[in-house]
Amino acid sequence: MPVTTDIAATYRSPRAVMRRLLDAGRREDRALAILMGGCLLAFVGRWPALQRAATLDADAPPLDAQIAGALFGWIFVAPLLLYALAALSHLVARLLGGRGSFYGARLALFWAFLAAAPLLLLHGLVAGFVGAGPGLQIVGVLWLLAFGWFWMMSLREAEKGTP
Q1: Which residue among 20, 86, 96, 128 sits deepest, i.e. has the most Cβ atoms within 10 Å of its Cβ?
Q2: Which residues 6+ apart lie within 8 Å of 101 measured at CB?
Q3: What's the farthest any 2 CA atoms get from each other in the chain?
Q4: SS3 sequence, the chain?
């Protein structure tokens, strides 16, 4: 299935999409592509807020410097942190009786991040066009809830192990 179809299906049934991804076999290249796609969308989602800050705040660094910092953070640092978080989540799941693998935990976290990316893009638009306020907080909470739900359901599916 196309990624966009899987993202839409995740909002209806995250465990079914995760089972389908796991059944496709262990593909580290696919997991990395999912992670980098999510990080790229998060990076793009930051642009409106960075533009707003560069335009409205005289003391803010120039836009190109802010974009370079966001690029470094989202494309180079965030993937390393997400890999570490996935490993930690698998170890915790193991302590709680999980029978999955590190790969399954990685795929669950990376997919949850990518699937919640549309809300992250909306968060960036609200930050850029409206700025700080209740609207930005509401969208941020919606993203956090969606990401947490997708991750929890995907990790539950991944930690079931193979039959």
Answers
A1: 86
A2: 26, 90, 158, 161
A3: 60
A4: CCHHHHHHHHHHCHHHHHHHHHHCCCCHHHHHHHHHHHHHHHHHHHHHHHHHHHHHCCCCCCHHHHHHHHHHHHHHHHHHHHHHHHHHHHHHHHHCCCCCCHHHHHHHHHHHHHHCHHHHHHHHHHHHHCCCCHHHHHHHHHHHHHHHHHHHHHHHHHCCCCC
User: Comparing C-alpha atoms, which of 111, 89, 142 is closest to residue 16?
Assistant: 111
Q: How far apart are CA 143 and CA 118, in angstroms?
A: 9
Q: Which positions of the chain have pLDDT values less than 50?
A: 163
**pLDDT digits over 34-80, tens only?**
999 999 999 999 999 999 988 888 888 888 999 999 999 999 999 99
Mark 75-102 as b/e (b = at least 16 C-beta within 10 Å). Answer: eeebbeebbeebeebbeebeeeebebbe
Judge whether 105 and 90 are in contact, CB under 8 Å: yes
Residue 69 has which token pair? 């910092």
Which amino acid makes up residue 92? V
- From residue 154, give the alpha-carbon distance in Å to each of 84, 111, 113, 159: 17, 8, 11, 9
pTM of this structure: 0.90
